[in-house]
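agent> Task received from the user: take the single chain below, predict its 3D structure, and emit structure tokens. No templates, no multimer pairing.
agent> Plan: (1) validate residues, (2) run structure prediction, (3) serialize to tokens, (4) report one or two observations.
agent> Step 1 OK, no nonstandard residues flagged.
tool_call: predict_structure(input=
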Amino acid sequence: MNLLSILTDGNTDKLESSIDEHIIFLEKEGISIEKTIESLDQQSLLRFGISKDYLSFKTYSDSLKIFKYRVACALLECIEKKEQEKMVRTIVKQECHYFSKKEKEEIEKISIVFLEKNKTSIEEIAAVKKLEKIRISLINSIIQSLNKEHCFNVQGFIDFRLREYCLVLVEVVEKAIEEYLMKREFNDFIKLLRYFVDVQEPKVKIVHIALDEEEEFRLYDEQNNLINNENLRDIAAEISGNYIGYDDLLVSSLITIAPEKIYIHNITQMKKREVYKTISKVFASKVEVCSGCKWCVAYVNKNE
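)
tool_result: status=success, residues=304
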């Protein structure tokens, strides 16, 4: 008994594989799905059927509903994999006239990272949440098409039913542009800090950074003398303005001292990794992280 048909362009391997993954549970329950493929010029027609012999414990209606839902999920998954990057690339091309080719490629990458939220530590954005709702709507739309026509035209769906999806992708790209500009601004800032460090004479050769459980830091020179944080705070405040935060104080202090070598001890206490990233970018090869050494035993643990 025929359940539904899918008309698609080109190779059907990925679509078949995705559908098989989504409907495998039916076979585990004793329902055998029959599949045939027919070539039509540059298109392929996938037909799915079911034998009544396997419906003794389930009604045909229930099996058909479950099957169509699973197929709809597989179809949307394949459509997204096939079209999403193309759509993002097109939007970036339209929205980013004043960016270089390299910058456009970076914005594309950031957009895809936002969309692949399971692969990123970036906070989920509103546009990505909208896509989740649209995906549910598209799955329902596919099911309605399968109920009405019994033959689903993949390219027709892409051409006429993804407008709202595309509009949300525009929002994602706009957010990616913001992210890229912030990153570029940060990198420019890092270059400026590097310049300050390079033109200054080192006030001490070596600085040890010791962190405690409250993430407060103490700085020691190569003679293991404590560097006075209050004096550094006054100097750093003059550079950065009237108020300076604790993280900023650490970075500003290091720039003021401009040491030849920096050792960071007890880094597991540094919960704000952005501070470490900033220090590493500014001082590059001058930074070394300690995971436990004699200096730690003598100075960090002694002062806890």
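agent> Step 4: summary for the user.
The CA atoms of residues 237 and 244 lie 6 Å apart.
agent> Done.
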